[in-house]
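Still learning. Any example?
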Amino acid sequence: MSTTRTRPERSDQMTTARPRDLRALWRATLALLVPVPALAMAAQVLLSPYAVNASFPEMLAGVSADPSREQLSLWAGFVFTLTVIPSVCALAWVSRRRAPWLSLVGAVLALIGFTVGFYLPGGGGAALLAAQQALDPVKATAISDAIWAQPIVSVSLAVFLAGTSLGLLLLSLAMWRSHAIPRWMSVCLAVSVPWHLLGLGGTVGTAASWLLTAVACLGATRALLLMSNDQFDLPPGWNSLHGAESSSAFDARTLWRMLLAVTTPWIAALVAVGRFLLPYDMSDAPRTIFEAMLTHPAYETAMAWSGVLLIPACVSGVTAVAFLSRRRAPILTTIGLLLAFVGFVCLMAGDGFGSLIAQVVARHPELDSTTAYALGHGIESSVLSSVTGNLFVFGHLIGTAILGIALWRARMVPSWLAIALAVSQPIHLISVLIGNRPLDLVGWGSTALGFAAAGWALLRMDNADFDLEPLV
């Protein structure tokens, strides 16, 4: 791997205008977010009006008796989805310099596990809709059972359990080795992992296990708040030509760069191809769309498996751009990353139950299609899905454009590639408004191209310009 550094094209002209230092804001934000997903998961477990690992009929009975609790539980799950990626990254960030390899492997495994878990069919939302619409419980249960019997669900569940468990255990060991948090807090994280899996103590016990995870996360919060900006990240305007020796040794930073670089374009590319090949028009009536999905199960299956394979890279593109521009355009990077991160997470973090219904019914004609349509359309039309969809639209359209401008300001890639990223989502918006699929392919394809350019720049970057060096 070449270690040739990528430099801003006009680094000699940028020394007079030092960018604003936002590292304290970034530290405080991460510190606030670290314990949130564990607390949200504990809240979701306690709020659910049915026991942990309940069957679909038991879910139906619970939500029928207390639908408001299930609605609150679903919102808690949404908070978990939005915050679990930054939480895992923050855990790795505080231990990465003294336990770099444990932090790297633990974070990658945990991120793979949690993001693939986004695709699992929760069942609670479907049960709530079935109860609210008075659907036949036998038919709804048959659909739920068929969904959970799909190979893609079994694979996703296995990856989720293995990735999150092993990843969090390795992160707890990284915390122990690095002294990043008090060691008893590292033990709390290690103990909570098998407790999650075993579900000891039922609902209360499972919630307690996530609260124990939150305790360990509070240790990372403390560590982030206590460390200095220079211990947290490279300063704004940093350039190793003037601040440090070139770093050509292979260390964990090299692998971080490589992993981030090679995963940048694929989600945008998947959306570009998927939207171009849609077997229906987005303007079609919901029933027409459902019927088209039933008659094209191969497309639905291919997109589902592609989504599971690529979902761990759902924010790689925006993160790669942010790593390139954060020190030379910190304000634009902060705003763009916040919006785009939320948008791309909401793109991938839907309820797997609704997205699998059509292909399951297509392969099992004995299932009732009317009930399946009611469940699928109900999930897509729910308040939570509407909020998720609006956050996706607003976040990825505006955030990606701002990140493109930040990348152009940072001069870390050729200007035309940064501009292509900045205008890519406005092009996508125009294509949607006029119903032009080839133009949409250009729009999302330009997003993928811009992300790929950021990845290539990361591959060529020196470790000293990428992150602080590991400590012995």
